[in-house]
Amino acid sequence: MVSKLTKLLGRLSLSRHFTWASTLAITALAALLRFLNLANPPELVFDETYYVKDAYTLGLYGSERVWPENANPDFEAGNLEVYTTDPSYVVHPPLGKWIIWLGLNLFGADSSFSWRFSTALLGTLAIPLIILIARQLTKSPLFSAIAGLLLAIEGQSIVLARTAILDGILTFFVLLSLFFLIKAIEFQRKRILSGFLGITISPWLIAMGIALGMAGGVKWSAAYFLATYGLLTFIFDWQVRARSGHPRSGALWQGFVNAFVLILSALATYLSSWSGWILNQDSWGRRPGENWLVSLVSYHRQILDFHTGLSKDHPYQASALEWLLNLRPTAFYFQEVGECFGSEECVVAITAMPNLVVWFGGLLAMIWLIRNRLRSIQAQIVVASFLAAWLPWLLIPERTTFQFYAVVISPLFVLALTLALQHYLRRSHLLGNREFREKRITGLIVLATAVAIFYLPLWTGLAVPYPLWRMQLFLPFWI
Hints:
Layout: H1 2-13, H2 18-35, H3 48-61, H4 72-76, H5 95-107, H6 112-138, H7 141-152, H8 155-161, H9 166-193, H10 203-216, H11 222-243, H12 249-273, H13 275-279, H14 292-308, H15 320-325, E1 331-337, E2 346-351, H16 356-372, H17 377-394, H18 410-427, H19 434-460, E3 464-465, H20 466-472
Antiparallel strand pairs: 1-2, 2-3
Helix pairs in contact: 1-19, 2-6, 2-7, 3-5, 5-6, 6-7, 6-8, 6-9, 6-18, 7-18, 8-19, 9-10, 9-11, 10-11, 10-12, 11-12, 11-17, 16-18, 17-18, 18-19
C-alpha cells in the first residue's frame, strides 16, 4: 500500500496543476479539522473566559469593560449585558480581541461558534501560507504540499485554531511575516546581483513590518521576531555582497535603513491597533487632561511589570524546556458525559496535544539543521525563527508559561522536518535507493495521519469512552 501511494504521489507531483489542486485539497482538510464541531463545547474554555468577553465589550466601547467574576454562565446562556461600564485593566494589546470580535459581530456573541470563528479561519489560512513559505524554501511542489499537510494535521495548531485565545492568531501573523522576510531577502539579493548597490526600500520589508506590528498587536512576544528578522535582513545582505565581490560596507547603510523602515512600519501598525483605546477618554489608564501618548506609555509600563513578575503556580504550567518534550500539554476542557459508542462512561476532553510524529520529527529535524545545515540560507531562516519563538522563554524560567505557547513553534518544526525530508530524498545516497527513501517518507506521512486520527477526538472535543481517553493520555504526567 505504501509503495502504491508513493508512486501515486510521485506522478501527481509532476502534474502542472498539482500545486493548486494540492493546496486546495489540503486547505479543505484543514478547514474541516478546524471548523468541525467548532461550537462544542458551548462553554468558555480555559482563557476564552478573558478574551471572548473582552472582545465583546471592546467592540461595543472601543476598549474593554469589567465583567463580574460569575459572569460566564450568563454569557454562555446568551445573557450578554452583565458587564459593568467600568474600564478594565488588560495585559495584552487589543488586536487579537478585535479579530475575535469579527466573529462575534458576524454570527452573534451568544453563539459559541462565533467565539471561535476568527481563530479557526486564521488557523485554516495558515495552511496555504505555510505551503507558500515551504515552496520558497524547497522550490518543490511536492515538499511544499507535504509541509501543508503536516501542519493541517498538527494537534496543537488544530486546538489553538479551535479556541478563542491569542496564540493561534499570533502564529498566523508570525508566519505571514516569515513569508515577507523570505521575499524581502530575495528582493535585495536580486538587486545586488544585478549590480545595483544603492540604498533600497523593499516593499516586502514594509509588508513584514506591518505583519510584525500586527503580531505585536496580539502579543508582545512578537518583538523577538521583529529583532530576529531585522537582524537576518542585515546578515543576508552582508553575505550576498561578500560572495558577489561587492564592498560589504554598503550593508551597514542598508541595515540602518532597513531597521528604520521595519521599526517605523511595525510601530505605526501596533499603535493603530490601540486606536479604540486612544479615542475613548474613559479607557483604563487614560488620565484626565493628560496626553494620550503619555498615558499609553504609562499603561505599557504596568503591562511590562505584570508580565515580568508573573510567577503564579498553575497545575498545567510548563517551562520552555518541557515544551520540546511535550511533558505537560495543556488541558483546555474536561467533562464527564453519558453513554457513547456502547460505553456507559464517556468523556469530552480538549487537550493541546501535538501530533507526536510531527512534533518529535520536527524537533529532531531542527537539531539536525542546527548541527549540519547552518550554512544553508533556508536552514538559517528556520532555525533563527525557532530560536526567536523559544529561546527568550528559556531565559526567564521563573515566568509562568504553558505548553500551548509553543503553537508558534509547530509550523517551524514542520518546515524543519520538510527540509530534512527533502535532503534525505535527494542527497542521502548511502541510506538506500531512491524508491526505498520515498517509501520511508510516505510511511512517515501515513504514520502522522494515523496519529492524527487517533487524537482527533481529543483535539476537537468529541465524546469518547473513558478507557480510550486514558489511552490517548497514556503518560501520567499528561493528565
